[in-house]
Design brief:
Layout: E1 4-8, H1 26-30, E2 37-40, H2 52-59, E3 77-80, E4 83-90, E5 94-101, H3 107-128, H4 136-142, E6 149-150, H5 153-168, H6 178-190, H7 196-203, E7 212-214, E8 217-219, H8 233-247, E9 252-257, E10 260-264, E11 273-278, E12 286-292, E13 297-302, E14 308-310, E15 313-315, E16 331-338, H9 345-358, H10 360-370, E17 373-380, E18 383-388, H11 390-395
Antiparallel strand pairs: 1-18, 2-11, 3-4, 4-5, 5-9, 6-8, 7-8, 9-10, 10-13, 11-12, 13-16, 14-15, 16-17, 17-18
Helix pairs in contact: 3-8, 5-9, 8-9, 9-10
Length: about 400
């Protein structure tokens, strides 16, 4: 069956929300985008809602009750029927939410499960945050790599998956882009775009083929090689936390970090798991919703968030590893999905990043090779064009 490609009416373009690349917020960039997915319990009757939070409220009276708590002062909220939920802002401002069915736990045990889950998120941040020189990745980047360097299990798994995605995407996913990210971050500070000469110089240190992985070690003869795992680390963190809560007795639930969402088990009241894809040109509306009785894993990568503003020009924050330039403005957002239980959120996260670089047509081929489904929203002549795998259309709710 051929892939489905559909033009949709143009919507009023949103203005940029500039993000200053200071130390306080730069980790948000490292971990890709804020969420362009909203979680809902029931179908949304009207996509033209005033805010994303109102979208959840319209979909389910209880969906809006818990808000991210930056100070971590709140306890998990009892939703009834042994369902509990807690939200926080983590990784310098990314909204995270955990909802769990814990029928065999007392209140103290339930609080302990949630605390272990948040510690799981913290742990992955301490492993994969390239902006923190004390993280494992920060120490790796600062080390000489002309001999095998030992890796933790988590970092080894992320790099092994990165190698797979690098190969399958023909280099569109490449975690060695740190020199490019640093170059463009400095350009934001100086408000002077990098020259082609500067980009070419940075590109000499880019290329996953320069990194040799063997068992739980990594080695490179390229002195300038530096890693940035922002393209899949959020998805990996969601996988990690879901494994923790299931091991601690959660029968069903949902773990969300920004645009990375993973559900497991049966939803409350046997309702389908349903997620809304935000309209990339209208922050007050949903473009579509997807749903399934089976557990869903979903990842998003959006070009319209976190632009780099240099001398009055906005550049997207995702880079083409081959050219050194921000990716084409034509791709507005990518959503990858798995309802078969075959893919991890880390894989979906990395694939969505690669598809933002590849564009619609090549993204479909990547999705097929990885055994996942995908939706690519691009802009053509002022209208949003949707390109999706046949499988994705099966999970999309009809308006």
């Amino acid at each position: 069956m051929p892939a489905r490609t559909t033009p949709t009416p143009s919507l009023k373009a949103r203005s940029w929300f500039p993000l200053a690349l200071s130390a306080a917020v730069v980790l948000v960039v490292a971990f890709s985008t804020f969420s362009i997915l909203q979680w809902t319990d029931k179908p949304t009757a009207n996509k033209a809602v005033s805010t994303a939070e109102q979208a959840e409220k319209a979909a389910s009276p209880k969906a809006h009750e818990t808000k991210p708590d930056p100070e971590r002062a709140t306890l998990p909220r009892d939703l009834g029927q042994a369902w509990w939920e807690q939200s926080r802002l983590i990784y310098h401002g990314i909204p995270a939410r955990i909802k769990l069915h814990l029928p065999e736990k007392n209140t103290n045990e339930i609080h302990a499960v949630f605390e272990q889950a948040w510690k799981g998120f913290d742990h992955i941040g301490q492993v994969a945050n390239a902006f923190n020189p004390e993280s494992e990745l920060g120490r790796f980047n600062a080390s000489k790599k002309d001999h095998p360097l030992a890796l933790s299990g988590d970092l080894a798994q992320m790099l092994t998956l990165s190698q797979t995605l690098f190969t399958q995407s023909n280099g569109a996913f490449d975690p060695t882009i740190w020199p490019l990210k640093t170059l463009w971050k400095n350009a934001v500070k100086t408000q002077v775009p990098p020259s082609q000469e500067d980009i070419d110089k940075a590109l000499k240190s880019v290329g996953f083929a320069n990194l040799k992985l063997k068992e739980a070690t990594a080695q490179s003869n390229n002195e300038g090689l530096r890693l940035d795992l922002g393209g899949l680390a959020k998805g990996y963190a969601v996988d990690h936390v879901q494994a923790i809560v299931r091991r601690l007795g959660a029968k069903a639930g949902l773990v969300q970090l920004g645009g990375e969402i993973s559900s497991f088990g049966a939803n409350r009241d046997a309702a389908p798991w349903r997620f809304g894809v935000q309209d990339p040109k209208n922050m007050q509306a949903l473009w579509a919703t997807v749903s399934s009785k089976r557990p869903l894993k979903v990842s998003t990568s959006g070009n319209y968030r976190q632009p780099l503003k240099i001398a009055g020009t906005s550049y997207y924050h995702i880079f083409n590893p081959k050219t050194g330039w921000p990716v084409d403005a034509r791709v507005l957002g990518v959503t990858t999905l798995d309802a078969q239980g075959k893919a991890t959120n880390a894989l979906l996260d990395g694939a969505a990043t690669a598809m933002t670089v590849l564009g619609p047509e090549k993204s479909l081929a990547l999705a097929e090779s990885l055994g996942i489904d995908a939706l690519i929203l691009s802009e053509e002549n002022g209208a949003i064009r949707s390109t999706m795998t046949p499988g994705f259309s099966r999970y999309r709710d009809q308006p």
